[in-house]
Amino acid sequence: MSQISSGLSGFYNTPISKALVLGVGGMTIATSILRWKPYLNLILNPHLTRDNQFWRLITSQLAFANSGELLFGCILLYQFRVIERFFGPAKFSAFVFLSSIGTKLLELGCLVSSNSLGLNILPAGPYGIIFAMLFQYYKQIPTTYKFRVLGLTFSDKSYVYFLALQYPQSFVPAICGILTGLLYHTDVGGIKKFRFPGFITRFAKSWLLPLLASTSARSSAATMEQVYGSDIRNLNTSLSNLLSQPGQASSMGRSYVETMTQGIPQTMREEEIMALMTMFPDTERQIVVAALQSANNDVNTAATILLSR
């Protein structure tokens, strides 16, 4: 069974996630080679209160302090690319920008208010952004399946939460990130409507997107055609018949969909259908259902079938 929580493999249609992984990874390696790590930490005193090095509010988010944190961070950022597919690149880039600002403001507030309790330093790394994404992952991405181990119930998303627990030193940034994610999810002040200005979007599409574009999933269609040859051809024929008569009462369509969807668990099917309809918003529901059934409930294969139409 495919995992909706993972989505299509690779960075297809997720340029922002790709930029984050490459950017954070590259900056971490560069700061290690150039010995710039002392510039990453954020210390209230002396960095902010005495030396006025407010630029550290930005640099502290650019790189991790060591390779272990980088490994787990990149795995999480890669996993969260499914959020970008859910939001779309424009909304996701705005979300990342707002999360970086929101988490740093909250972290700064924690430093100032808790300095008397001994809190004076925050670790380097985009922890706030990661945990803001983690909250969206928890709220927005459906669970594909659950299983029990030693009496405990887990899901296909559990390993992501386990990875996030590998950062005990990031407790304060984690709380700030989760609060920022909550504020965004509840749309406080209408922040979900924020988008970058048109000239920035046009510049990014013209100059940055070509550098970050990944191979389309369509490139795997030929291989899938070889593996699922007759099934895909039969499905495409049936889909063409459905599309050629979109305005009819579709008794044939309903009968076809009912036949194709027999034996699929209702809860599971609905979650997978919604995930695919998010990826293919212009595709009719019955077509998504038919593709999913033809792929034996494998979301990745169903997505490839829909892409190859």
UniProtKB/TrEMBL annotation:
Keywords: Membrane, Transmembrane, Transmembrane helix. GO terms for molecular function: serine-type endopeptidase activity; ubiquitin binding. It is a multi-pass membrane protein. InterPro entries: CUE, Peptidase_S54_rhomboid_dom, Rhomboid-like_sf, UBA, UBA-like_sf. One of its GO terms (cellular component) is membrane. It comes from the Eukaryota. Residues 267-309 form the UBA domain. Its main location: membrane. The keyword Membrane applies. It is found in: Membrane. Residues 268-309 form the CUE domain. This is CUE domain-containing protein. It comes from Dimargaris cristalligena.
